[in-house]
Design a protein that fits this description.
By secondary structure, this protein is of the alpha+beta class. It folds into 2 domains: 217 residues, PmbA/TldD superfamily (PmbA/TldD fold, 2-Layer Sandwich); 223 residues, no CATH class. It has 9 helices and 19 strands. The strands form 4 sheets. The chain has a 6-stranded antiparallel sheet. A 5-stranded mixed β-barrel has the order 7-14-15-16-19. Strand 2 and strand 3 form a beta hairpin. The radius of gyration is 24 Å and the shape is globular. Belongs to the peptidase U62 family. This is TldD/PmbA family protein. It holds the Pfam family PmbA_TldD_1st.
């Protein structure tokens, strides 16, 4: 793909919008390329190569806004986008809280600086990715008891983006992702079980060896052989670190400014109140080097910074972009994100929950009888009340030890009560957008056999 001047593209979109009659405008230009290789049975199953350029434009006129996007970036298309966006905005409802940042709010650092979120080594070739996938597949297939490897994948992507706005902001950065994953199967027919392992990193040198990922997928799969339903009742539940971040994700959703401003959050009245047990901190740090969600500025051009969402168990603040901050009479937390054809909205970057001192085995022993959850499916979450119900699978615990694997059960509770009983293990893994250890919830309802 020929190099594209993303800065010039984004700035030309903004200029076109102003000429078309917009009061304010911001634009995002992004180029990227990705390669993905799937192996199965030692042969190539699927290979995918994609590259392209996308552009997105948002215009604001008197408290009204509209967003448009395109994959063509010719001058004619840019002019048509600006005209269409302005026409759409004139028909949109008025929201007086909409608007770009003031110039004195804008980030001074307008590139990724020392964040190291783009691998500076040459992009891996398709042959190299195929070799990684083959090695992961072989490691899983060679484990006794594995009947087949459903897929082994290795992938790489590199993206560049540039944000420009009529308030004078113009900045951009690149990002890379390396990934390896494997899905293994044991048994046949109705006795078939599957599980997976996968890892992704910004830098290739931070990835585990593909053999390690393949073996882990096989070990997880073999541990699921003979799964059955658990009993029904009230039991403690240990969320394995594979899924524990989902619990914290529900907390983050409840403190998101969009939900709070709509009155649709079960934590809307809890600012300054305990939401986690004493001693728990929940930190957001968008400036962690080599981490997947790191970024020097948000989608509105504000400088990102570390902050405590929860300090000592007490809720410190909401996650806000400019519009939700204005609605709530607060300042933005520089948390805006946006898609090509959508307006900014609040999101989180690199969250870290205080780990505990106990090992997962210690917490299993403390449970006595209960459920270890390793995978989840479906969800029924009431964002206003915090009522929670999800399908789950994992392992049943008796006498403080894992007794047998579990499938097809439902776990339920209320998020407020669940989060206030958390006990954290010491097994959080690095390199995740959510660095969360295994979490024990003292009491929930399990619906099984």
């Amino acid at each position: 793909m020929a190099p594209v001047d993303l800065q010039a593209l984004a700035e030309s979109l903004v200029d076109a919008a102003r000429r078309a009659g917009a009061d304010q405008a911001d634009a995002l230009a992004m180029s990227g390329q990705s390669t993905s290789i799937d192996m199965r049975g030692g042969v190539l199953e699927h290979a995918d190569r994609a590259e392209g350029v996308e552009i997105g434009l948002r215009v604001l006129i008197g408290g009204r806004q509209a967003s448009v996007s395109a994959s063509d970036h010719s001058p004619a298309t840019i002019g048509e986008m600006a005209e269409r966006a302005v026409a759409m905005a004139r028909e949109a409802p008025v929201d007086d809280m909409l608007g770009l940042a003031d110039p004195d709010q804008l980030a001074r650092q307008r590139d990724a600086g020392g964040l190291q979120i783009a691998d500076d080594r040459p992009d891996p070739s398709p042959d190299h990715l195929q070799d990684l996938a083959l090695r992961a597949e072989a490691a899983a297939r060679d484990m006794p008891g594995i009947s087949q490897v459903e897929s082994a994948n290795a992938a790489f992507s590199r993206r560049f983006l540039w944000l420009a706005a009529s308030n004078g902001f113009s900045g951009g950065y690149g990002r890379t992702t390396h990934a390896i994953s494997t899905v293994a199967i044991t048994g046949e027919g109705l006795g078939m079980e599957r599980d997976y392992a996968g890892e992704s990193r910004v830098w290739a040198e931070d990835l585990p060896a593909p053999e390690e990922i393949g073996r882990l997928a096989a070990e997880r799969t073999l541990a699921r052989a003979g799964s059955r339903k658990p009993p029904t009742g009230a039991f403690p539940i240990l969320y394995d670190r594979r899924v524990a971040s989902s619990l914290i994700g529900h907390l983050l959703s409840a403190v998101n400014g969009s939900a709070v401003a709509r009155g649709a959050s079960w934590l809307r009245k809890d600012l300054g109140q305990p939401v986690l047990p004493e001693g728990f901190d929940l930190l957001e740090d968008p400036l962690r080097p080599r981490y997947p969600s790191s970024r020097p500025f948000d989608a509105e051009g504000l400088a990102t910074r570390p902050r405590k969402i929860v300090d000592g168990g007490v809720l410190q603040g909401w996650t806000l972009d400019l519009a939700t901050a204005r609605k709530l009479g607060m300042d933005s937390t520089a948390s805006a994100a946006r898609g090509m054809s959508s307006a900014p909205s609040p999101t989180n970057s690199n969250v870290i929950l205080t780990p505990g001192t106990a090992t997962p085995d210690d917490l299993i022993a403390e449970m006595g009888t209960g459920l270890v959850v390793t995978s989840m499916l479906g969800a029924s979450i009431n964002g206003t009340t915090g009522d929670y119900s999800r399908g789950a699978a994992g392992f049943w615990v008796e006498g403080g030890r894992i007794a047998w694997p579990v499938n097809e059960c439902t776990i339920a509770g209320n998020l407020r009560d669940m989060l206030m009983t958390l006990v954290a293990a010491n097994d959080a893994l690095p390199w995740r957008a959510a660095e969360v250890p295994s979490l024990l919830v003292r009491g929930m309802t399990v619906a099984g056999a």
